[in-house]
Amino acid sequence: MDKNKLFVACDTLSKNNHIITDLKNAGTYYLVFYGTATSISWQHAYAYNYHLTPITLTADFDVNVTSGLAPLTVQFINKSSGVSGTTYEWDFKNDGTAKSTLKNPSYTYTAPGIYSVKLTVNDGTNTIPITKTNLITVTQDVATTKLANAEYYIDNDPGVGSAVQINVSNVSDYQLNANLDISGLTNGIHIFGIRVKDSTGKWSYTYSKLFIKSDVSDSQDKVITAAEYFFDQDPGYGNGKKMVSFPGTDVSIISTIDISGLSNGIHILMVRVQDNTGKWSIIYNKLFIKEQYSSNSIINITQAEYFLD
Fold first, then answer.
1. What is the extent of the structural domain holding 179?
2. Residues 80 and 128 grouped into a single domain
3. Domains contained in the chain, number
4. Beta strands in the chain (DSSP E)
5. pTM score > 0.70 for this model?
6. pLDDT digits over 2-51, tens only?
7. Is 264 within a domain?
8. Among 129, 95, 120, 128, which Cα is nearest to 109's?
9. N or C, fewer C-beta in 10 Å, the chain?
10. Is 307 contained in some domain?
11. Closest C-alpha to 59, from 119, 126, 117
């Protein structure tokens, strides 16, 4: 009870335990003890004057910068308060690997990452810790990042680090200029994928490109001898509408295409050519919209919009 004999807390004490709870405010308290002995009823109460001294020690700190490029030097500003003789223990990564006992230390973060910082203050009697989570963010300067490795694959990605390795070391950019062995591939469409790893161990996104393997004699001159087009659905090789073309390695076709039989709406125009060996090219396609307007009507544009991705 307090000095006004008001009840403030209650607890149970064993022979060797001394438990005092719920005394949160500074001041003088009177502890009333009751006890029992074997075969003896409750004894008289004993009063004990107990004085509770408030803890004035607090832990707090600030920093001059919270983010930047590596290496990043951070100055720590101690804002703790309390009695004289206080000691300080800093943990700059909150993992026990980087510490200081200075009052206002500085620390240089050399590796990219997000770091939590812990400060523990001690006045000889009381220990007060404070941890600021994810306080420091250190990033890598892209301009100083070098390539350490590269790899490629065809068709099936075996996983990062498991593709065909390319000798790349300590360069800022890399251009692949090599003859790749594709002798084991079947004729047809394939996928070529390539990615690089920087000096910090991070892999890039995979760049991929479609390519076609076809056995063509180098000694035989190839010329375009035919062309055809069709709308929306492929009727099969040689079954499209014939276009006038002239033999040559490059052909520019300028022609008026009849779309009178198409309904209004979105359609796909597809064109392909054939060479003198009978091989057809891949299809070039283009979306277009057919709209039917009266020859006397005037259509005014009233609105426009754009979007990304």
1. 145-213
2. yes
3. 4
4. 27-33, 46-52, 61-63, 67-69, 72-78, 87-91, 99-100, 106-109, 113-122, 127-139, 147-154, 164-166, 188-198, 207-213, 224-231, 241-243, 265-275, 284-290
5. no
6. 455 554 555 555 544 454 555 555 566 566 555 555 555 555 555 556 56
7. yes
8. 95
9. C
10. no
11. 119
